[in-house]
Design goal:
The protein is α/β, with parallel strands linked by helices. Helices cover about 35% and strands about 20% of the residues. β7, α6 (about 145-150) and β8 (about 160) form a beta-alpha-beta unit. α1 runs parallel beside α2. The longest helix has 15 residues, at about 235-250. The radius of gyration is 19 Å and the shape is elongated. It starts with 13 loop residues before the first strand and ends with a helix.
């Protein structure tokens, strides 16, 4: 039985951006709502003053913290430049909460570690109108400025669903009655011909290892993209694009 979470982690509410330029861009974007800015207590001078002015103009509180704390929160000690901002992601929520609404079609990212791939998948799936993209907190590239940049900013508004691991998500989806179909380079049914259940979750495996053994053990079936040319496989973000717009063609994205 699935139990809704009573508290929501900040990681399931905000996307954290770090570095002076990304923080200023977030503060200057009227379509984004910044919850807070955290500035290292060692940050001084014109750059820090500029961020404080921009935050004040946007009505965003600025908190001071140790430089070490900022590095820990940013998760990138080499590029945080002593500042980060928590940006509200209005459509991001825990997977357990989303299952109550039962979106018809969701993607599950399993071991995709390249930020550019995660960002492009978020952009493509959002453009196609999918009901959700499950991005586990572990085993997948962090939702950081590199992912936001690759998504061209769409990551802030993507229907991201959060959980601990891909295996946990797969188990929850199967328990909730979803058919779990993994995309593979070879074998399985053609993506363009396979009948799909009313509710389906599609697993996209990592760039090198593919779908993890834990998730593969729960898979209902495998799908492949027919490739008559002499190419063995597609980049995972390209495969995701083919999948998403095949669902658009079928009229079954949500």
């Amino acid at each position: 039985m699935l139990v809704a979470e009573t508290t929501v982690s900040p990681k399931d509410r905000f996307l954290t951006v770090y570095g002076r330029k990304p923080v200023l861009e977030a503060l200057d974007d009227p379509e984004l709502r910044v919850d807070k800015v955290i500035l290292a207590d060692t940050a001084r001078g014109p750059a820090a003053a500029e961020i404080q002015r921009a935050a004040k103009a946007a009505g965003v509180p600025v908190q001071r913290a140790s430089a070490h704390r900022v590095k820990v929160l940013a998760g990138n000690g080499k590029q945080d430049q002593g500042v980060l901002a928590d940006v509200v992601a209005p459509l991001m929520r825990p997977l357990s909460a989303a299952l109550a609404d039962a979106p018809a079609r969701v993607l599950l990212l399993d071991g995709i570690t390249t930020p550019a791939n995660v960002g492009m998948i978020l952009r493509t799936a959002t453009a196609a109108g999918l009901g959700g993209i499950v991005v586990p907190r572990r085993g997948v590239a962090a939702l950081d400025p590199l992912v936001v940049k690759a998504s061209a900013g769409v990551a802030f508004r993507a229907p991201v669903l959060r959980c601990a691991t891909a295996a946990e998500a797969a188990s929850m989806l199967v328990e909730a009655g979803y058919g779990l179909y993994a995309l593979g380079a070879q074998g399985g049914s053609s993506l363009f011909e396979a009948p799909l259940p009313e509710r389906t979750a599609f697993v996209l495996g990592g760039e090198t290892a593919g779908v993890s053994d834990e998730v593969a053990s729960l898979v209902t079936g495998w799908l492949s993209i027919p490739m008559p040319g002499e190419v063995e496989s597609l980049n995972v973000s390209a495969a995701a694009a083919v999948l998403c717009f095949e669902l658009v063609r079928r009229g079954t994205t949500r």
